[in-house]
Every structure is written in structure tokens, then in C-alpha cells.
Amino acid sequence: MSLVLPMTLLSPAKLNLFLHINGRLPNGYHELQSLFHFLDYGDTMTFSESDQHLFTCDNPELETEDNLIIKARNALVEINSLRDKPQHLQPIHIHLNKVLPMGGGVGGGSSNAATTLLALNEIWQLQLSKPQLEEIGLKLGADVPIFVRGESSIAEGVGEHLTPYPVNEAWYVVLTPDAHVNTAMLFNSDSLPRDTAKIPLSEIDYQAVDPQFKNDFENIVIKGYPTVAKSLNWLLEYGPARMTGTGACVFAEFCSQDEANEIFRRLPVELAGFVAKGCNISPTHQTLFGQ
Ligand SMILES: C[C@@](CO)(OP(=O)(O)O)[C@H](O)COP(=O)(O)OP(=O)(O)OC[C@H]1O[C@@H](n2ccc(N)nc2=O)[C@H](O)[C@@H]1O
Ligand SMILES: Nc1ncnc2c1ncn2[C@@H]1O[C@H](COP(=O)(O)OP(=O)(O)O)[C@@H](O)[C@H]1O
Predict the structure, then answer these.
(1) CA 142 to ligand 1 center in whole angstroms
(2) Which residue's CA is the nearest one to ligand 1's atom 32?
(3) Which member of 68, 94, 219, 247 has the greatest number of CB atoms within 10 A?
(4) Does any ligand 1 atom lie closer than 6 A to the CB of residue 183?
(5) Organism's domain of life (predicted)?
(6) What is d(CA 79, CA 88) in angstroms, rounded to the nearest whole number?
(7) How remote is the CA of residue 51 from the centroid of ligand 1, in Å?
(8) DSSP 3-state of 82
(9) Does 107 belong to an annotated binding site?
């Protein structure tokens, strides 16, 4: 497929509709079961022709070499350079418009890395398969493969084993408390419940209102971060609400856009968030592959 540049893609947020910790492995990592779903809301990334590889961001603090966008681009440049007949790679300017809260459990950095891998693979015609891109992505972060896959899925193992699991595409009110939660610290916490029973895949029938689906990090985070507790308690007034990932963002599901907007309009000024629609196919894939 030949792409017209400049090209702008939405690099979406994800929600963990549930996140269960089933056990701890001898290497310290945790076995989990989690349902990942995409939102039609996120950062935007623009890819344009340039005379040198370039990465810019509306937030200059993110323009560093350890940005996952640069790491993803460099991984593809290296793979090409190791091929028998390396291709000439057109230098690309990648611009990121950062919208998603960082370290909020909505996966912005992982999403940006995956969007970079998917877009450059098409622009440079590298012909890397999705499984190959997922493998490259996994080295950048545990959640990159799910964004490369681009389908609502249940993650198992330590997060690497993905099974597509489409759900009803509802509307979400997502609140974004001003708190940066440390993922590694939470995984190491003595208070983390690690014994949620694994549900056989064939028996998972996800319903937002069903209390068997929960986030095992939620109780520790609300104890340690009052702003998260405040946002979650506000949402709980209107229906079942839950935290995503290791926090800090929390969400509640609604049947219609009108209902979600109506609740969001009541948000007190000291709380922040957004309204978005759930997507079984990532918006990046919808644009890039017409899915
Ligand atoms: C748990 C999730 C669910 O989406 O939380 P969020 O990051 O979205 O909040 C993610 O998979 C997180 O992914 P990510 O934040 O990339 O974590 P990583 O860098 O891979 O791991 C950070 C640390 O968490 C611990 N870790 C991570 C994954 C796992 N299955 N078991 C673990 O024990 C390890 O101590 C690891 O060093
Ligand atoms: N492109 C990027 N966007 C956001 N964060 C990034 C990016 N590249 C690297 N990071 C780093 O990754 C950390 C976690 O980012 P993020 O994916 O937004 O968190 P979470 O997985 O909790 O939603 C950030 O604090 C930042 O230091």
C-alpha cells in the first residue's frame, strides 16, 4: 500500500476493563488476566517527509532519546540495517501531540511506540508481519504488543499471550486524577492480592456490572492516592466504576454518548477527565488498514 504523507494517526488510549493478578512467578513477574479495550481518544502523531530523522512534541520535555517513539523508530532502522540488502529509508519527521496523561494507566507511551512501528513499517515498506512487530514491541514495554495487534483482547501469562475478545462498544467517562503511580512499586507491594482465581478463557463473559471483574491494584492505589479515591468515589455515584491498569485513571461505562456527556457535565471543577467511545479495533488500525 502506498501512503500519502504527511499522515496523521490517532494513537489511542486503552482501558483495562478488568485486571486480575493470578500469581507470582519465580522471576518476580506476575501472572495476570486482563481485558484490554481501546478508546477513540488519544494522542495524535503526524508522519511527514523530511531531510533527517526527527522527533518533535508539543511538550518539549518529551523530546528525549528515551522516548518510546525514538526507540521504536531506531529498532526498525536497526532491523533494516542488518538485512542482506538494506533499503534506503526516507527520513521521517514524527510529531507527537500529547493529550493522554502520562503514567495514568491508559497506555499512552506504549500506544505511541506501537503507532510508530505500524506506520513506519508501512511508510518504509519493510514488510514486517504483525507477530514480528509485536515481538519488537514487547522489548519496548509489556503493553506495546496489544497496541500493535489493535484488537480488544484478553491478555494472559505476564501479559504477552493475547486472545481477541470483542465487547459491546460502550461510552466511557474517564477521570484523570493528577497522580503518577509507580507500576514496579505496586507489583512489589505486600498488600497486592495475588491469588485471584484464573477464569478459563471459554468461561469469561465480561459484563461491566459483574463484581467478579475487578482491578486487583485498585484498593492499594486508593489507599495511597486520595485523588484517585476521590475520582473513583465520584464515578461510583453513577454506576459501576473501576481503575485502569495500575492507575491513576478511573472509568465508568454508559450505554449512550448522551448519558456519558450528561454525567460528565456534572463533574466538579476540581476533577478532570474526558468522554470517549470504546473500540474493538484500534483507531490507528482503522485509519492505516481501513479495518
Ligand atoms: C499492568 C499494566 C496493565 O496494562 O499496567 P499499566 O502500565 O497499564 O498501568 C501493564 O501491563 C504494565 O506494563 P508496563 O508499565 O509497561 O510495565 P513493565 O515496564 O513491563 O514492568 C514494570 C515492572 O512491573 C512488574 N511487572 C510487570 C508486568 C508483570 N506481568 N508482572 C510484573 O511483576 C515488574 O516488576 C516490572 O519490572
Ligand atoms: N511517547 C511517550 N509518551 C508518554 N510517555 C512516554 C513516552 N515515551 C516514554 N515515556 C515514559 O513512559 C512512562 C509511562 O508512560 P505511559 O505509557 O503514559 O504510562 P501508563 O502505561 O501508565 O499509561 C512516562 O512517565 C514516560 O517517562
Answers:
(1) 6
(2) 29
(3) 247
(4) yes
(5) Bacteria
(6) 13
(7) 37
(8) coil
(9) yes
Q: Give CA torsion, residues 192, 193, 195, 199, to 10 deg.
A: -100
Q: Is 105 annotated as a binding residue?
A: yes
Residue 157 has pLDDT above 90, yes or no: yes
Give, for ligand 1, the residue of 183, 196, 243 to mutate: max count of ligand atoms closer than 8 Å to Cβ.
183
In this prediction, residues 239-259 reach a mean pLDDT of 97
Domains assigned to the chain? 7-165 (3.30.230.10), 171-279 (3.30.70.890)
Does residue 103's CB lie within 6 angstroms of at least one atom of ligand 2?
yes
Rounded to whole angstroms, the Cα distance separating 208 from 285 reads 25
Q: What are phi and psi of 201, to 5 degrees?
A: -50, -40
Supply the DSSP symbol for 62: G
Name, in order, each residue with C-beta under 8 angstroms of 5's C-beta and a sequence gap of 6 or more: 47, 48, 49, 92, 123
How high is the pLDDT of residue 2?
63
- Looking at all shown ligands, the one closest to residue 245's CA atom is 1
> How far is the CA of 268 from the CAs of 101, 234, 264, in angstroms?
19, 9, 9
pLDDT, one tens digit per residue, over 1-46 is 568 999 999 999 999 999 999 999 999 999 999 999 999 999 999 9
pTM over 0.90: yes
Model confidence at 160, pLDDT cuts 50, 70, 90, reads confident
